[in-house]
Design a protein that fits this description.
29% of the residues lie in helices and 25% in strands. Helix 8 packs antiparallel against helix 9. It folds into two domains: 238 residues, Bira Bifunctional Protein, Domain 2 (BirA Bifunctional Protein, domain 2), CATH 3.30.930; 89 residues, CO dehydrogenase flavoprotein, C-terminal domain (Enolase-like, domain 1), CATH 3.30.390.50. With 338 residues, the chain is α+β, with helices and mostly antiparallel strands.
Amino acid sequence: MSSLSLYGVEIEEAGQGTALATALLADVRATGRALLVAWALPGAVLTLGRYHVVPPAREGASVGLARRLTGGRAAPLGRGFVGLTVALAHRNALLPRTASPLSPAQIPNRYVRGLLGALELLGVHAYYPGRDVITVDGRIIASLGFEVCADGAVLIEVALAVGRSFADLSHIADAADPTGVVPTNLLLPEQGTSIGEVTGRTPRLEELVSAIAAGYAARLDVETTRCTPVTIRSVDPAWLEQGRLAPHLDRHATMRAMLGVIDVHAACEGDVVADVRVCGDFIAPAYTVDALQAALRGAPVDRAELRQRSANAAGGGFILGVESPESIGDLVFEACRQ
């Protein structure tokens, strides 16, 4: 039987969520164990996906900014929300040894089941419709993203509404990013909910951790054990800064996609793509995105060539939330033709 080690922890700074994810990945690579941490954070925080452009810094902002290691849409964290981070040495870590390797789309489908079991124990009948959200009667209660590293390690990051509605994402995004740099689907009050709103009470962090342990044990047939917290190194401010947009990327094109918006920012020298950055609401391994951007740099501004390079570069990985890799080539062409 597979085993999942877990614990709950209170952290102090927005960036510590990413520092925690980094530490958990290092641990599972060294030990081979599977880890899940539920963590709470004070204040209000807008957490960005790995591929979002980070808005300019603002002094005295009432809402913090954090940048995840995983892709996906922007999500709320802080008071009233709980972050869940799952780190696995490989995608089949909590499955029987005889199980076939999970496809990329099956990774969240499989590992979200333990959370669904936990919510049921807390009196919330939630549903995973696929992609990157969990709902209750059609209202969003959680969102998720995941990363498959080049060495096969897997990271899943979840933002769960516990005592504050997920619909508050709209207010949090407005406060953290008033100029609208980050694409955010504005949620009406009836489009989001929380554990507290559904059940009439807000569970404490320890109660939530106990429910998660029981949910994973029941839904995935794994042994769950409590463990001591992993040591978190200091927050690296460079990770957030790396997400800001370089000034030379002065060409831009955008499109609506399955999870929200895809943006391309490019720099052109004559009829050649000098540089490119692919941004927005999608989920993909960092090595796939790096390969895609590298393949597009130096390409002629020719639609067919850009589409072919995009398809070839993405062939060894996956990009969830984009209809086809070729559409990225189309966006680069549109940006450079402006």
